[in-house]
Amino acid sequence: MKHILIVVFLFTTVQFSAQTDAENLKKIYTNSLTDGMSYQWLDHLSNQIGGRLSGSLNAELAVQYTKEEFDKLGLDKVWLQPVMVPRWVRGAPEFAYFETSPGVTTNVNICALGGSVATPAGGLKAKIIEVGSYTEIEALGADKVKGKIVFINRPMQADLINTFEAYGGCSVERYAGAAEAAKYGAVGTIVRSLNLRLDDFPHTGSMGYGDLPNSKRIPSAAISTNDAELLSGILALNGNINFFFSQNCKQLEDVQSYNVIGELTGSEFPNEIMVVGGHLDSWDLGDGSHDDGAGVVQSMDVLRLLKASGIRPKRTIRAVLFMNEENGLRGGKKYAEVAKSKKEKHVFALESDSGGFTPRGFSFDCSDIMFAKIESWKPLFKPYLIHYFEKGGSGADIGPLKDDNIVLAGLRPDSQRYFDHHHAANDTFEHVNKRELELGAASMTALIYLIDTYGTETLSNNVELKN
């Protein structure tokens, strides 16, 4: 009889807890959709500041602005964390054409890849050869590559529903192509933009030279997908054409910048820290609204939404706006380095760096036991059409925090249109939908609330009975 009474008591407690959780999630979503700040903050970042390349004036204006907005929220603590970042500048607009016969030219859309060296002052003109992957360069050898521009034309795999998988499958072409081509005497590389759509926007992104000395480094640029198709078609008809491009980019000395951090101190476990974040820097072609202004303002709004919903977290919640994810990951590494030096106990980190599109769910880097616990919360998210809960990756900036004691997670929006804008001039504010952005902020806040309420190490009896 006593055993039966205990079961009834526990069941009643579970029902009350589930009801309270549902009510709190309702408050969070309502506050975000009716009185959210994420879209307003993004408007300012995008339209009043613009692209925020690490080391630039705009990046520093973004640091000042977001710190000021954190200060207005009445948080328990706001501070700037210094970090040295690279400063690469694009210079004058790039220009390119291919020449099918003397004097007969067709202009194409290109942009320098981040970290590339410049062409000679008057530009670079040479015969161009096409490969489907940078790994094909070795097979061609120096006899066919030396003195030429190598056109690396590898499309993203269109039949992969996970567009980030498609991106990951060919991003190495952009990053390593120039270094590989230079080994065999190439004078430059032109890389197909990482974009599933056919359009005229070249997409920049980070590239590297490995251990090549400066004297051996060659310029590298991305070409739009439309022009990649055109160039490939022309080369199929006439393999003896010239390509010309001019770019004026330059790598300058590192400069000091900052991670921007706002904190709500935990009421019961202040030494257990939960991070939510995005990266404040962006590339310079657009205004960085999707990548990653969206993640920045959503992370900021997590703290505001908790306060607005009357939820005082048990654990310390930090919103971290990381600097220099795009071309160095210095902000994420610095944050983890400082956390380790201070022996801080980080138990959870959530990153938003997949655009401001409709949220679908989350991916988690965690144990099977923790994942089972998270899956038990699916019914709470079902009214908001959040169904995607998978084990997998999290985010680049929170990756350096990884150890055996932390759960990492990433917000996963619908990604089908993300690479239409990624690192391109059309990553701009008008392409972000207000409601979708606010749904993402609410979903992040809801997950933070549940992790804070139930912890990351063991399942309470109440939560176990929900399964």
Descriptive notes:
The protein has 467 residues and is an alpha/beta fold. Helices cover 38% and strands 24% of the residues. It has 13 helices and 16 strands. The strands form 2 sheets. It has an 8-stranded mixed beta sheet, sandwiched between helices. It has an 8-stranded mixed beta sheet with strand order 3-2-9-5-6-7-8-4. Helix 1 packs antiparallel against helix 12 and helix 2 runs antiparallel to helix 7. The chain is elongated, with a radius of gyration of 24 Å. The N terminus and C terminus are likely disordered.
In short:
With 467 residues, the protein is an alpha/beta fold. The protein has helices spanning 2-35, 38-49, 57-72, 136-145, 163-183, 225-237, 289-308, 330-341, 368-375, 378-381, 418-421, 434-454, 461-464, and strands at residues 77-89, 95-101, 104-108, 110-112, 124-131, 149-152, 188-192, 220-223, 242-246, 250-264, 269-279, 315-322, 345-351, 359-365, 388-391, 407-413. The strands form 2 sheets. It has an 8-stranded mixed β-sheet, with helices on both faces.
How is the topology of this model organized?
Elements: H1 2-35, H2 38-49, H3 57-72, E1 77-89, E2 95-101, E3 104-108, E4 110-112, E5 124-131, H4 136-145, E6 149-152, H5 163-183, E7 188-192, E8 220-223, H6 225-237, E9 242-246, E10 250-264, E11 269-279, H7 289-308, E12 315-322, H8 330-341, E13 345-351, E14 359-365, H9 368-375, H10 378-381, E15 388-391, E16 407-413, H11 418-421, H12 434-454, H13 461-464
Helix pairs in contact: 1-12, 2-7, 7-12
